[in-house]
Amino acid sequence: MPSIMTNGILTHYEIQGTGPAIVFVSGLGGTAAYWKPQIETFAKDYTVLTYDQRGSGTTEHPAGPYSIDTLVDDLCCLIAELKLEWPILIGHSTGGAIGQILAARHSELLAGMVMYASWAKSDMHFNWCFRMRRALLVGSTVEEYVHGSALFLYPPEHLSANAEVLSPALLASAAKFPQREVVLSRIDAIMAHDATAYLPLIKTPTLVLCAQDDVLTPPYQSRRLAAAIAGAELKVVPQGGHSLSETETCLFNQITLEFVAGIHTSANDTTE
Question: Alpha-carbon distance 253 to 230, whole Å?
Fold first, then answer.
């Protein structure tokens, strides 16, 4: 992946395809690799940007504290440096939190936004989930942490049916794991996230997407997001867990591509 300076750090990114721009923004793990199931399909008609966030993958891992605000500033700088015009943001979980603040503060920057498996403000359920994950990271091995985290990401049926593939992939991610202090700081950042005052400011066309069986950010979180953002569309699919884009790839791609196409159709109609 090439790299570029953004907001004081060296950020690694990848661009594939041509056409209108789409920026994929990952969740807590923060890596571009999360979107591998989407890249080939979306790059047929769009310019697709993926990147490793601050503290993840091959981007620099500065010491904390981390915050959603800092991650927003990083992304704004990346979009500006790469001269992307009016991209659509597709954000998963933490990526959706980044999108909330970015869209509220920079309404002119995005053509549209998909927030998938995200939340507006931490509540007791969210905090208890991450209290457990934080304790696992502090008190156990990285290998146990990534396997334990998988219980929050995948539906039981998917995990059981794909364990022989998932486990080696999780062990491979553990081998490239950042320093624990960096991951703990990223966890603290998402637990502190509260965008409730920002949501009414969002004017960007928005799709809020989640799975009914998501145990980490349950559907009520998505309903709250959609209710607070004027004109937002809500889509709840029956299954897929917190990692819907991976477990139900075809369905996720179909829903998001239809939304993206609708954004560009509306833009073309406006300019004609």
Answer: 24
